[in-house]
Structures are given as structure tokens and as C-alpha cells.
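Retro notes
What went well: the complex prediction finally ran end to end.
Inputs used:
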Amino acid sequence: MPVQDGPFSALHPIAAAAPFCGADPVSDEGIVLDWNRETRVGVAEAVLCAGKTTEQIARIVVLAVTRNRSLLLTKLDAGRFAELEPTVRERLNFDPLSRTAVLDNGLPISVPAGVGIVCAGTSDLAVGVEAQRALAFHGVQAPLIADVGVAGLWRFLDHLEQIAAWRIVIVVAGMEGALFSVAAGQVRGLVIAVPTSVGYGVATGGATALHSALASCAPGVVTVNIDNGFGAACAAIKLLRMFAPSQ
Amino acid sequence: MPVQDGPFSALHPIAAAAPFCGADPVSDEGIVLDWNRETRVGVAEAVLCAGKTTEQIARIVVLAVTRNRSLLLTKLDAGRFAELEPTVRERLNFDPLSRTAVLDNGLPISVPAGVGIVCAGTSDLAVGVEAQRALAFHGVQAPLIADVGVAGLWRFLDHLEQIAAWRIVIVVAGMEGALFSVAAGQVRGLVIAVPTSVGYGVATGGATALHSALASCAPGVVTVNIDNGFGAACAAIKLLRMFAPSQ
Amino acid sequence: MPVQDGPFSALHPIAAAAPFCGADPVSDEGIVLDWNRETRVGVAEAVLCAGKTTEQIARIVVLAVTRNRSLLLTKLDAGRFAELEPTVRERLNFDPLSRTAVLDNGLPISVPAGVGIVCAGTSDLAVGVEAQRALAFHGVQAPLIADVGVAGLWRFLDHLEQIAAWRIVIVVAGMEGALFSVAAGQVRGLVIAVPTSVGYGVATGGATALHSALASCAPGVVTVNIDNGFGAACAAIKLLRMFAPSQ
Amino acid sequence: MPVQDGPFSALHPIAAAAPFCGADPVSDEGIVLDWNRETRVGVAEAVLCAGKTTEQIARIVVLAVTRNRSLLLTKLDAGRFAELEPTVRERLNFDPLSRTAVLDNGLPISVPAGVGIVCAGTSDLAVGVEAQRALAFHGVQAPLIADVGVAGLWRFLDHLEQIAAWRIVIVVAGMEGALFSVAAGQVRGLVIAVPTSVGYGVATGGATALHSALASCAPGVVTVNIDNGFGAACAAIKLLRMFAPSQ
Amino acid sequence: MPVQDGPFSALHPIAAAAPFCGADPVSDEGIVLDWNRETRVGVAEAVLCAGKTTEQIARIVVLAVTRNRSLLLTKLDAGRFAELEPTVRERLNFDPLSRTAVLDNGLPISVPAGVGIVCAGTSDLAVGVEAQRALAFHGVQAPLIADVGVAGLWRFLDHLEQIAAWRIVIVVAGMEGALFSVAAGQVRGLVIAVPTSVGYGVATGGATALHSALASCAPGVVTVNIDNGFGAACAAIKLLRMFAPSQ
Amino acid sequence: MPVQDGPFSALHPIAAAAPFCGADPVSDEGIVLDWNRETRVGVAEAVLCAGKTTEQIARIVVLAVTRNRSLLLTKLDAGRFAELEPTVRERLNFDPLSRTAVLDNGLPISVPAGVGIVCAGTSDLAVGVEAQRALAFHGVQAPLIADVGVAGLWRFLDHLEQIAAWRIVIVVAGMEGALFSVAAGQVRGLVIAVPTSVGYGVATGGATALHSALASCAPGVVTVNIDNGFGAACAAIKLLRMFAPSQ
Amino acid sequence: MPVQDGPFSALHPIAAAAPFCGADPVSDEGIVLDWNRETRVGVAEAVLCAGKTTEQIARIVVLAVTRNRSLLLTKLDAGRFAELEPTVRERLNFDPLSRTAVLDNGLPISVPAGVGIVCAGTSDLAVGVEAQRALAFHGVQAPLIADVGVAGLWRFLDHLEQIAAWRIVIVVAGMEGALFSVAAGQVRGLVIAVPTSVGYGVATGGATALHSALASCAPGVVTVNIDNGFGAACAAIKLLRMFAPSQ
Amino acid sequence: MPVQDGPFSALHPIAAAAPFCGADPVSDEGIVLDWNRETRVGVAEAVLCAGKTTEQIARIVVLAVTRNRSLLLTKLDAGRFAELEPTVRERLNFDPLSRTAVLDNGLPISVPAGVGIVCAGTSDLAVGVEAQRALAFHGVQAPLIADVGVAGLWRFLDHLEQIAAWRIVIVVAGMEGALFSVAAGQVRGLVIAVPTSVGYGVATGGATALHSALASCAPGVVTVNIDNGFGAACAAIKLLRMFAPSQ
């Protein structure tokens, strides 16, 4: 990996002096995929692309193709996706809004399972679709209801009957995150809050929405990290597999 | 004010060497009351007791009595109140829940004025009553509806018709402060948010409720400092006096 | 509620001028209990005692007794409990470690339901027992395994077989909260993290443990507010009732 | 919305498996506009463009055109505006300084209403004009006085007579926000503070100005989120409509 | 210093095994006073009592008495002062408001030097007097003008002529600290800001006032730590001694 | 200023409906320069370019040229400078490292005045030169000693004799800012700390260096905002003019 | 552990319904001591008393006595120590300054090992002695040099020869923590920084000192948590045992 | 360094009026290299490129070449590297992943020394390689094991035997940093934690990982600044040279 640049490299192979000590022959790039994660904890290995170089992402896809494994990639910007070589890109089902890609050598047909997603605003849709696609990747079909924030509460109440029928309600909201408490005060299903970084001023970065979820006056709200639609989907999948194994 | 303690004080009157330079003869204790504030900005001088010594508070009450002026004291703990001398205490109408006291040599009869107060939880009542008493001190009678947080939204909706008739709605809430957005999404009156320090964990100190008010997705919410029921009342009084001078 | 103190009170009943506008005859103290919460959202009304006055807590207990309802009180310090009148105290099953009390006119027999609690350290036990008692209040018997933090990982691994059989694993940890990720990387059940305020320096207040739960590298961890054992129990109860209604 | 990219898309229409569940036929993009907001809460629906994709913004404009509705767009960067198609752009009255655009099929003639705007510095002008244009959008003509910060207090005092005549004074200031307190200590009108993100070092992001507004020693200051000129305008409009319905 | 408690102490003098390695015979308690500080940097050694045990404070006073040196003690609470032995107490000129004490074996007569102190509120007086007494300890007589915050700007302007004549203006303010900018925009003397921890909500602890001083739009404001009246006095003394050595 | 874009602008001159209310004929762009600042507070008007548009900066320069005034511009990035028209650029003495420019129609000859600047690292030089040029703009010649941080303390000690002779020592440091305390513990001159945003991790943004200056164990350190070399220079100038008017 | 209080306890043994699931017969109180920690990681099990109840601490001591093991207790306040029963207290060598206690059934004789401790101020001594006693508990005799902060740099330089001879230098400092960088810039030994919570204003809690250690311009400084003298000692012990096993 | 731009520069050489006062003839650019650092503190001078201009970096390399010294450059982005002139670039062994470059006129052959590096994730590799190359620069060959985070604990345990043999274990982790505690609870070697800025939401910037290291429940973990692989390497080198001088 270290680039040998200039006449000194032959004389002083500094990086080469301390070679990587990878776990298996294909991981000499510092990559060790956890292929049996799904068996052990109930959700499949996935790759967080933010923070990785384009080369590392490409290498991971190749490793999965080599093993004939499916793979979900998250936080993959359109710009970064465009940097991948065409032979890699064409193997990925990419969605630029949610910044997710799926490498798929045989996904299950996704079926309804009593899980749904509610987004407070249009801007929260990107994270909501990340959750939706992560659920689909694991075979769970989840409807998504968008733009029903509490500034116009009627939008949420119009869908209340449908939402109240779900066993798990993934609520995606930024800004002040009031929808978490409103929803959790109205339904019997578990509310998994996904705070988003949508907003400005004190809402910048998403901490306000996160803290609203954590401090909710409605009992039983649980939350995941800011913008972590993938994490909410994983929690739902684990529950479905523990409580309703046939799904 | 400096206590002269021990044999050195006669020789070295350190503090006395630099006497306070007060604005008028009665302010040699470092106190300059702004008696014409009500004329200038529309709300009367009031005294924030937190941070002042018992002696300073007592001195201020005496100054007001001397001038035959009314006075509102806020953030006056019951313990601090008990430290005041009986001759001072008996002149004050004290409410331990809201930690307010009124020195009153002729308050106006308070009348309804289209301002009301809504408290999310029982714990927010202390701050709500602070606002209520500050309004009454200025002649404004404001109803208070308590314990109608969004965990049980029906409690708020049960009162919606009454609340929607108010021109100014003071909403008092701690924890995640979702009531600010819910109320502002339902009524035409101005919502003045009073975030409170009620809550624990990430809600400790009130920043979560404050940020929820500021980042509200419902347009037109304004806010005051945490636990500042007095400030919300002042804003309402200023508006009433500008828009409806007869009140 | 406002104390009428001194000769001015008869002339200027300030607080009385704007009476509380309660929802029903028994709520003239600013208390509106949400008795049908259990039907609506799956968990029963409970009372957060932190931030409430002793009088308010006592009044709430009386309201519940009058209606012949059970009630869970949380964050009730031993000192505050001791201030309650004996006639109130004797109706409460109080546990000083978890600061919980139960008013019980006929609790269900609690039964095992595939939910368990793991505490990282002895100091986390208070919050863990809060969760345990909140589950028992709703009829769910949950075993609790204590003092198995990752400083001595063998302690956790010794119990792994038992923990891995649970459908929901409530993990209670303060300090750096590493146990959240370790547990979630090993079991198929949903990990509900309860960060605690145990620790000092950068761990003071619990934000470090909270952030560890949110940023966990193990997929599917969900979290509740710092020290909120009650909230984790509520989430578990909602899930059990949605997925396994007979429980 | 999900882009179908590459040969896998036909076989595995992941996103399509869980279609959006929008509120009306034109909202299949995750957009539900709150057309009756003005009737319900007194201010019209507006669109916060920050956080939305160019496609979403364009779609919203088309929805409004279809319904023959006016619309205000905020936080619309010049770069983003330039990405819109010419057919959309030409329908918008765009101001790059305030990053606002107005889609206008028949705006009211704006009239003076006792509301004015004061900006501390030239850099605060962008947010001040956002407020001014949001007021004009609702038919309120508001004068704006710029660059009168307290470093040269004479600049503010020169305008004091004019400012003191306003019923509502929107004060826009960044850095340390001292102008909020100075103004509120001098005028009878309600001061609505709009802290801005102008400044560097500890003033970066605007929290210093925001906290100055909240902690003001002058009674009755209310505040909105950092850079939220639109929100201050909304509060003013709600008040004008409640107190002076003919406006 | 380690207390030997119980039968193990004789056998295992743990602390004694690693004796303190003090700089001189009288510092075996871990105390090394910097007696030549005044010569080196222009201000005398002083003792910050917060964080020290009563025994350590007493020992320091004894060391100074032994050497026949004067000494200033700061942040000495009245309760802590009361714990000192009478023989120590009687040597100290103690002021409970500013929590300062002076051990004085021959202080200079303090003379006017063009330095003055302005306090925004009565609650800021404690810190202002700390500065005043620290100046007096070094022979500088500084007038103090109190309770002239910007909520009633006339109070400050009434004293403007006097203040404008000072070469150094120590401004003490809590809450939003607007007085720093107002003063610095009006006078030619250097404004040294002393933010205080006076206030609540976002002003708790004093960070809001501190940030206002740092972000001041008026050029040339310098600041010291929150509540550090002593530090502002030291800066003034250093300047006086550099620029006007005869003082 | 609002751009009239598209066919709606003629019909709906929204911004024009509420014209700016500037202080003098040349300030219709929202600019009011404080030309008599130097007389009033001892330092000249200067322009903080960060946060202003290129048009606003150009307009300010033109205003100064019209009045035949000198002007200092700070935080003017090289990129922004390049956007100015050549006729403006050629009137400015621009320094890209310190991001300062001087419009000069007759600057005084700067002379030594007992003020000097010390920079901890090479990266702090930009802020140090900002201070140096702001001093020169006011006629004060200040030597600058660079790259003498405490990692190699000998570098500072090598210059100690020179530094100790200065009456005012401007110390510029980022990262942990240890040089503030080291210098203040060694010299009699006033140390004005200028914390910089140099550093990464916990030092990002400069808060660590700022807090080190404020919490310095060496008495009498004063500080200005992060990266505010200009502010430190202003403080020095004010002192020189008060104490040594001939300078 | 749960207190059975009142007549309901017999009928509803809530806590008893879900018994603790301890790891061994003596841990039914939620305590599992890691007796083989010293073998595994090189330092012995120790007990952080902060956050534990008095009963839990007493129980732990009894467990150690039963097993004939030595034990170190940290953060044990004098007040808490006094609450222990005399039979427990008399087995502990307690030091109130450092809040440490040692249960000792045969400690090794501690010997010099090239480790020393430097404290910046007298107030830091408590944490320094915690480190010293933790080292002694493991058989390492470490000299401690106190009150040598950089405000008077000569105090540190006077000891430089001694300090430079140590292989590991534990530096304990609060406030701005400048001593970390000064020491690390002068010695070859590893500097382990122990930031303390000594200080006020921005130094409150110790974050300023911590960040100074982390952002030090001197290469190779490592740090532990605020006030964690114990942790620094453990690091030193691990190093000594790895590099010089005979010690 | 100041650019003389425009006709005013000849008349008003502002910057030239106050020339830099460098320590030696080659440092007239504000650069003073600490060439004897390695002798004094055990690690060589290195250059943090972040925050320096391209010209400053180039000048430093030239200074080193002139003195025939080796040099390590850190945080040198590939983009910045590309801006250097070819004659400078060709002298540097540059690695874009770790952003390090080595100017080498005779590096030692690096040899194994009982130090190793463990990276939690692939994204942490950049910082891990920075440590590895800094060690190599000082002659220490350190193996690196990558992508063994606790989400799949088996990956770490597979390497436990190898890791447990190291005397110093540099652990590099972002997100929640659980690997620090897991490793420190399993090995006798000193764990030096290097938290990284890898992650999003609450993990943004690396504070969560940093706090996990500091609050670790495993005794003896020490930490360096976020992303400071170089610092961890320096600590290791200092230890090796103190304890095993022949290395």
C-alpha cells in the first residue's frame, strides 16, 4: 500500500520493513471480513464506506465476489461510487439518495414483516431509504411513509391506523425530533428512533434530535446513532429473527 | 461590606481605601435599582435573587419599601426566604413552589388578556407558576393548564379549543420539549417556549428542551432561557402593552 | 398550592387570580394521570419522582389508591421516601438501591420471557435493578447477571451460553461502555444499552458510555437515556406484547 | 427515486419492493405539503432547501405551480439555485444574499405594520434580509437598519427614536450579540433576537450570540434559532394577525 | 500527611516508603512558595485556596509568618475560614463577600493609579471586590462602580465621564456580558473583562459571559478566566509597574 | 442588493418594498463606518472580511477612498482578494500569510514602543504577523520571534533577555498553549495571549489553547479570541496611547 | 439487597422473583472479583469506591479477607470510610488526602525502580499520592516532588537533574497543565500525564488540563483520565514488569 | 514573506518595518528546528505539516538537506505533497495513506523490539501506518494487525497469543473504541490507545473513542491525541531507549 516515491524508496523500504500481519491470505490489505456474522448475531456483514479509500472499497467488493457472497455497502457517496472502476460499479445496485449499494449474488425475496418506517421530513428520506434498503437486503419488506412531521400533525394522524398495526416503527427525524415522542405516545409497537443531521443552528449535526429521542417523555423509545438508518434496520432484523424465526 | 476581622483591620483598611462609588445615597451597597424601567421598556424592575447574598436581598426590599414601590423577586429559595428577618418576610407574598415573592403596596387587579400557560408535566409547574405570578404582578390574569405532555397527546388535544383562543401561549416543558412543536403546529397564537431543567441524563440542565424549542419544525416558535418563566411573562406583557395599551 | 404568607395575601391573592385549569376534578394540583396508557401504548403509567415535590408524589399515590390502580415510581431517593407520610409509605414496596417503589393492588405473577439483564460493574447494579423491577411490575421475570465488565472478559464469557439464549439482552454499563459492543458482537438477541453515570473525569454524567453505545461497531445496538433502566424495560415489554401477546 | 444502476437492478428491485406510501398522488417523492398551514397557524407553508436534493426542490416548486399556490423557499444557495432548470428558475424571485426565493402567483401588497429589523453588522445583513423578505411575502413591509453594532453605540442611538416606535423589533446580531440587550433595555417593543453564525473562534457557529440572547439581563427578550430570520418573521406575522387581524 | 489508621500502619508504612522530595526544609508538606515572584514578574505570590485542605492553607500562612512576608489568599470560603485555628484567623484581614484574606506585615499605602472597576450587577460585586482588594494589596487604590448593567444603560452612561478617564477599566459581568462591548466601544482605556458565573440556564458557570468578552465586536477587549478578579488585578498591576514604575 | 431574477421581479419588487434605512447617503448597502472610532476608543475602524461578500468589501474600500481614509482589512483570504477588481486590489498592500490588507493614504512611520510578539510554532506565524501588521498600521513597530515553543524550551530561553525588556508581550500559540504560562512566569511585561486554531484532535478550532491561556497558573495573563492577532494589537495600542501618549 | 418495606412485600416479592445470577457463591451481592488479574495483565484487582454503596464496599473487603488477598481501594472519601464498621476500618491503611485504603495481608517491600512523580501544585498532591500509594502497593517506591508548577519555572528546573534520571515520569497537573509539555520537552523518560480537576472557570472538572496533555507540542506524552493517579501507576507497573521482570 | 502588492508597497513597507527576529541565519522564515531533540528527549525532530504553508514545508526540507539531517513529516496530504517542487518531492519517501514522508540521508535498519500495532478497522489503518512508519524511522520494526474490531471478537482472539507477547501494544480504534478495553483486559504489555476520527454522528471527530480510552475499566491504558499515531510511536521509542538502550 505505501507508495514508493522517489529514489530513496529502493534504499529505504521503510514501510516494507514492518509488513502487515493479516489474518488470511486475502487480507494483506488490512481487511478481515466477518463472513459468519449473520450466523452469530443475526445480521450480515456490511461495509461502512465513509473513511475508507476507494481502493479499500474496491478490494472488499472483489473479496466478496471471490467468495460468492452478497454484501451491503453504506455511506457510499455518489462521487466515491463514480471513482470505482466500471467492472466493480456494474456489480452494484447503487442508490445515490441513501448512499447504499448492494452486491447481490442471490438475495432473498423480501416479505412484509410488521416493520415500517416513518420520516418526519423530505430531507430525512435519505436515511429512511437507507433503513428500507438494509431491511430489503435481509428479506424484509418495509413500507415508508414520508414528510409527516409534527408541524402539520394531521399528516401523521392520517396514517395512524396503518402505523399502529406495525410491531416495529422506525421513526426518522432531524431538527427537534418531536415526532419520536408523538409516535411513541400513540402506538403499541416499539419505536426505534433514527435522529438525522438535518437542520441548522443548534440542530447542526443531529445532536438535538438525538437528545430528544433519548429524553423522550414517552416510555420505551430506543435510539441509534445519528443518520444510522442501517443500525435501526439491523435491530429490527434481529428482533424478527429472534421472535419470528420463519421470517 | 468587607468584614473587618482581627487586629490588622484598623491599620490596613484595605477595602475602605477604595470606597464604592454608588449612583445615589441609598446605593452604597452596590445596588442601583432601575425604577423607571416600566416606563422605558414596559416591564417593571424585578430582582433575581439567585447569586445575591441574603443581606443584599433584604437591602433591596428595604429600598423598595422606602420608595413605596412594588417589587417582584424571583428564584428565591424557601431556605433563603427563611433567612430573611421577620420584618422583611411579613411584607412579602411568597410562593415556595415558584420561588417568587411579591412586595406589594398596591398591585393592579389582574384581568384576562388572551394569554395562557401550558405545562408539559407536573415538574414543570414551578416554572409555569413563576410565569403566572409575574403576569399577575403586571395585572394580567393567565390560566394555567398542567400535565398535558405528548406522552399522552389526548391531554393536550382535550384543551385545544381553549388554547387555540389565546393570542399568546406560554408553553413550559422539560425533557425533550416535544410539546413546543406540537402546540405551535396547532394554534394561531404565538408560542413562547420556556424550556425547563426537568429531566436527567442528556436532559440534565435543560439544554435538550431548549434546543428542541430553537430547532422546532413548526414556524414562529420563540424561546427564552431555561427555567425563565419570568422572561416569558415579560415578553407577553410587552406585547400586550404595545398592541392593546388599555390592558 | 401557593403559600399565602403575611398580611398582603388577603388583599392580593395573586396566584388565586389565575386558577389552575385541570383536566378533571382530582387534578387541581396540576396532575393528570394517563390511566389508559397501557392499553394505548403497551406500558403502564409510571411516575418519575426526580423533580417533583414530596407533596406532588404523595398526591399521585393517593390518586392511584383512590382509583384502585397499581403504580410504579422511579428515581425516588431514600431521603425523599422517608419524607412521605407513614400512611403513604406503608403502601409502597420500596427498594433504596434502585430508587423504585411499587404501589400494588394486584400485580401479575411475573414469568420468564426470554429477557435478561447484564451489568458491567457493581456500581451499575442500581440501574439494572430498576430495569428488573420495572419488568416485574409488568409481569416479566428477568434474571440479572452482575459485575462482568470487559476488564475481566472471562466473567462475561462464562455466562455467554445463558445470555445468548435470551431474545432481548439489556446491558447496563458506565465508564467506557465497552460491554455494549462486546455483547452485541456475540449474541443474536437485541442488545438494549443502558449507559450509566458511573465513572469520573470524562465519564462523569454518563455521556462517554452513551456515545459508546450509539457509535458501537457491532450492528443493531439500540440505546436509551443515561441511567434509564426503566426505559429499557418498557422497550422490552412493548416488544414482548407485540410479538408474544400471551406473555 | 432509487437509481437502478447496472445489470442487477432488473433482478433485484430492492427499493421497489417497499414502495413509498405517500399521502396523495403527487407525493410519491416523499413530499407532503401542508397547504392549509396558513389557516391553521397563521403563517404559510415554506420550504427549507438546505438538506434537500435539487430534484426535491424542483418537484416542490412544480407541486406549488400545479396548485396555483405561492411559496417561499429559504436557505437556497446561489449554486443550488443555478442547478435548477431554467423553467423553474424563471418562476422564482431569487435573492442570493438572503438565499431566499419566492414563487409568486399573486402576493399581497405589503404595508407597514410596526415591525422593523435592526442588524448589528454588515455580515448580518443576509439573515436580516431573509426576515425582511419573509415578512414581505406575508404582506408586511418592514424597514431594515443595518450596521449599528455596539462597537459604535452612536449608530444605534441615532436611530433610537425610529426603533422605539416599532411594536416588534427584530434584532439580528452575531459575534457576542450585545445589541440584543442594549436594544431591549431601551425600547418598549418586543425584541425578537436572531443570533447569526457571523464570527470566528468562540463565535463560530453562532452559539455565543444565541446564549447572549437567552441570558440577556434585559427582561423580555425572546429568541429563535441561529440564522433563522424566517422564524423571527413568522413570529411577528403570528402576532400581527392575532392582535391586528386586518393587517 | 498520610493518616496512619489501624494496626497495619506500623507494619506497612506505605506512604512513608516514598517520602516527599521537597525543595526546602519548610516544604515537607508539598508546598514551595515562590517568594521572589514579585521581583521576577511584577506581582506577588498569592494562594488559591479552592482545592487545598484546611491544613495546607494553615501551613502556608505559618510559612509566610515565619518569613515575615505578606500574603494574599483568594477563593477562601467563609466556612473554610472558620475552620482555621483562631491564632491563624486573627492574623488575616478576611472579607467574606470576595472570599479574600490578607496576611499583612506592612502593606504599602494604596494610591490612585488610573485603574477602576465596573460591575454589571449586584451579584458580580463579589468578584469585583476580589479585584479591588488584590489591587489594594499591591498598593493601588481603585474605585468600584456597581450595578450598572445594560438593562438600564443610563446607569452606565451616568458614570461615563469618570470611567473614560481611567487608563485601565476592569469590567465585571455575568449573564450575557453585554457590558464588555458597551464599555469598550465608549472608552479609550483598556477594558479587561472579568466574566462571572452569575446566571442560570445557558449562563450557568459563566461560559456565556466569557465568550461574549472574547467575541466582542469592540476592538481591544482582553479577558481573564471566569470569576478571576484576582487575575484582572494582576494584569493591571503589571502594566502600572511597567509603564509607571513609580507607582 | 436583491437580485431581480425572472419575470416576477417587475411585478413583485419584494425587497424594494422595504428599503434599507441607512445612516448616511453612502451607506445604502447596509454599511455604516465608524470613522471617529480612533478618537473615541484609541484604535481605528477596521474591517473583518470573513462573512462579508466580495461586493461588500469592495464597497467599503471605495467608501474609504472617497473619504481619503486609511483602512485595515483582516481575515481576507487570498482567493477573496483575487476576486476584487484590479482597481481595488492595486490600492491595497496585501499579505496572504496574515490575510491582511492595508489601504493607505498616509500611514505614520512606525516606531519601536516596547511591544513584541512571540510565536510558538511556524504555523502560528500567520496570526502573529496579523498582530504585527495591525500594530504597524497604528504606527507601532513590533519585533516578532517565531518558532520557540516549549517542546524545545531553549529556543524561548535564548531570547529571554530581549523578551523580558518588552512592556507588552503578545504570545501566539496553538495546540496546548503552554508557552503562555511559561512566558508569563518569566517576564514582568503583560502577556497578551493569542490562542490559535493550529492543531488537530482535541486542539481543533483552538479551544484547548484558549482554555490554557484562561486557566494559566501564572498570574496576570489576559487573552483574546482564537486567531485574533488584530485584537491583541488593539489592546497594545490602547495601552500605549493611554500610558505614553506621545507614541 | 432490595429492602422489603410494608405489608405488600410478603405478597409481592418483586425483586426476589428475579434472583441475581452471580458467578460464585460469594457474589450473590452482584460482585465478581477478578482475582487473577495480576497474573493476566500485570496489575492487581482494585476497587473504585466512588459509585458503590457502603454495604458493597464492606462486602468486597470481607470477600478479600476471606480469600486472604490484599486489596487497594481508591476514591474512598473520608466520610464514606467513617461509615464502615470498625471491624472493617481497622483492617485498612487509610489515607484521607489521596482517598486510598490498603487491605494488606503481606505487601512486598517496595523498592526504587526509576519511576517518579511530579506535582504542579499543592492541590494536585492528593492525586499524586494516589499514584504513589498505588505504586507502593505493587512494590514500587516512587519519590514525589510537589509544587513545582511553571508559574515559577525555577522550581521545576531545580529538580531537573533528578527527574531526568527517571525512566518514567508521572506528571500531575490541573489548571492549564503546562507542566506536561515543559517536562516532556526536557527529559528522556516517558511522561505519563495525570490531569487533575484542580481549577475553576474553564478549568472546572479538568478538561483543560486533559486537553493540554493530549495536544502537547512535546512528542511522546501519554495521558490517563482526569484525577486517575491510580491509572498512571498501573501503566508504570505494567512497563516495569514487562521490561524489568525482576522488579 | 509579506507580499508587496501594488504601488503603496514601496512607500509603506509595513511588514518590513518590523523584521522577524529569528534565532539563526537560516530561520528568517520563522522556522527554528530543534536538531538536538533526539539527544535531549529521545525522539527526533519531526514536522507536523497540517497548518503550514507549502512554502514553509519546502523550506524546512531544504534546511534539513542543508544540514544533512533526516526528517519525518506527518499529516502531509497527497494534494499538498503534489504542490511541492519535484526537486523536493524526489527526496521524500511519501506514503499517501498515512500522509507521512521521510527525508532520509541514512536511516538505521529497523529491528523488532517487542512493539506491535493493532487496528480495529480498515479505516483506522491510515493512523496505524503513521505509527508504524514513525517507529521505522527510529529503527523499530513493528508488525501491524488490522481489522480486528470487537464486532467480531474472534478476529482479535485469533491473534491474542502474538499480541500478548509484545511489551507495548499500540491499539488504534475509532467509533466507540471498545478494543482499547478488550485488549487491555487481556495482555500484560502496556496498551497505548490511539483514538481515531473514524465514525459519524456522535463519533465524528473522535471524541467518543478518546473518552473510551480515558474511561477504560481496564487498568493502565494510556492514550494520545485523536489520530496521533506519531505520538504513540514516540512514547514507545522513548520507553525502548530508556529500558533497552541498545535498541
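What we learned: Chain A has a mean pLDDT of 88.
What to try next: split runs per interface for comparison.
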